[in-house]
Amino acid sequence: MHPQPQRVAVVGAGAIGCYFGMRLAEVGHDVRFLMRRDYDAVTSGGLNLTSHLGDLSLDAPTVERTPEALAAHGPVDWILVGLKATAIPDIPKLLGPLLSADTRVLAIMNGLTVDDEIAAQLPDGTSLFGGLGFIGVSRGEPGRIVHMEFGAINLGHHGDDPDELQRGVDLFAGSKVEIRPEPSLLKARWEKLCWNIPFNGLCVIAGGVGVDQVITEPPLYDAAYELIMEIVAAGNADLEARGESVRIDGGRIAHQFLTQTLGMGAYRPSTVIDYNEGRPLELDAIFRQPVQRASELGVACPMMAMVATLVGKLGVRGE
């Protein structure tokens, strides 16, 4: 149990936001959800989680359709943001009514520059955290979340303040969420791209398939490995250019991600789900921004550029 329950608003209550919000509620935090699609189902039947780490039901969670209605329940200590990067322009209107001088923001979102983009939308002085969710989770029927694999958050602070980082770690104390503190948020972002670009990208290019087809078909497996090596090179160049002393261990990260993905079966990453359902893809956040940054640094990344181009062309149907 956390020594002092925190008041947490979940904005972007999809699979990711609901899962981590529910795990915080499970250990006694006051968690409130901003919902649209599932509002009616949750108000009538609660929010239900099926998970290999333990099922959970919140019978009568605080749920509202608008941030103004959620703010009427009182101030919050934390806002957990589970939005897609495509929704960053909406952050002022979604978070504004919920923010106070002491509110901290944790964005569990994909992308290389997402933290800087969000910070630019928040009042000066707001403490912002970046969360990299390593988890297989999806929405089932309205009001139901299905958790299949993993469940950790690699957590960093925008500004790399160690005291603030500890506050983020403490938020999840006692919960079923493994928190991996990241002294360098930039390094953590590049490492997450080492999974997101190969597996989101190649799964879309292969026709909207699951990760099992990438990991078990030698040409796709080889392409995934080459992509990881390019991303590592770009990431380490970026870290050097920004004066950070840490570096990504390419051999370790490639072995880790390729091995872990082998055990994920036919899991479809978020970009594949968006592609298959005709929704806009997170093209800039996951694919284009890393290529642009590599180009600025003079790092050759032909595989990354090709994947960004192909996914961009294929994703037009959802734009």
Low-confidence stretches: none
Mean pLDDT: 95
Sheet/helix structural class: alpha/beta
- Our estimate of the beta-strand percent is 15-25%
- What is the rounded distance between the termini? 44 Å
Number of continuous helical runs: 13
Main sheet properties: 10 strands, mixed
Shape: globular
Task: Assign a percent range to the helix content.
Answer: 40-55%
According to DSSP, the number of beta strands is 10
Rg = 19 Å
Give a written overview of the molecule.
This protein has 319 residues and is α/β, with parallel strands linked by helices. It has 13 helices and 10 strands. The protein has helices at residues 15-26, 39-45, 67-71, 91-95, 114-119, 162-171, 185-205, 211-216, 218-241, 250-262, 270-276, 283-296, 302-314, and strands spanning 7-11, 30-34, 47-51, 56-58, 62-64, 78-81, 104-108, 127-139, 144-157, 179-181. Strands 1, 2, 3, 4, 5, 6, 7, 8, 9 and 10 form a 10-stranded mixed sheet that branches. β7 (104-108), α5 and β8 form a beta-alpha-beta unit. α7 runs antiparallel to α9 (218-241), α7 (185-205) packs across α13 (302-314) and α9 (218-241) packs antiparallel against α10. It is globular and about 50 Å long. The protein starts with 6 loop residues before the first strand and ends in a 5-residue tail after the last helix.
